[in-house]
Structure to design on (186 residues):
């Protein structure tokens, strides 16, 4: 039998800061061995911590974008983010590629990637506040700004959106996400 391997969907994991997107993605990659995680390219200092990302300077990012390295790129919160085109290689023979995206680029991503699922990760406000405070990255005023943005809706026109509540045990959120991503196994 010849031919290209089937491509898994791009699975956008979106939600407010502190909701546990990175924890959910890591746990899903372990729980769903055919799932892969795409590293973003970000104009953030390497010592900033948080997600596993490829840090670059603004000049490097501009050069990468100019050379067509990204399948998708955007700006948010004073930083530039990019998803390299090699996401297409990761999709081959996979159960899907998990990628942390901004709500602002979801419609463009749906068009670019075709087979596209959105996991909208949520958590109760008090849980978000506690997690943001525990991170210690922002002062109280910035935590309040992040909490205010947490209620921003997703854009209309998305075809496959599933809400995943991550207020409690991570395992519960993982099981809910797996039921969406791999419904035949649930």
């Amino acid at each position: 039998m010849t031919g290209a391997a089937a491509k898994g969907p791009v699975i956008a994991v979106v939600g407010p800061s502190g909701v546990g997107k990175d924890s959910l993605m890591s746990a899903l990659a372990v729980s769903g061995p055919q799932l892969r995680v795409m590293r973003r390219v970000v104009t953030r200092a390497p010592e900033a911590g948080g997600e596993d990302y490829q840090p670059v300077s603004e000049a490097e990012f501009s050069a990468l974008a100019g050379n067509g390295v990204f399948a998708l790129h955007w700006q948010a919160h004073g930083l530039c983010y990019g998803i390299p085109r090699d996401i297409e290689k990761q999709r081959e023979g996979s159960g899907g590629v998990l990628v942390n995206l901004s709500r602002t680029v979801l419609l463009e991503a749906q068009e670019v990637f075709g087979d596209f699922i959105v996991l909208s990760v949520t958590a109760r406000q008090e849980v978000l506040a506690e997690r943001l405070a525990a991170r210690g990255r922002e002062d109280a005023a910035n935590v309040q700004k992040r909490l205010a943005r947490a209620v921003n809706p997703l854009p209309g026109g998305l075809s496959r959106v599933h809400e995943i509540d991550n207020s409690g045990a991570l395992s519960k959120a993982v099981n809910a996400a797996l039921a969406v991503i791999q419904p035949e196994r649930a």
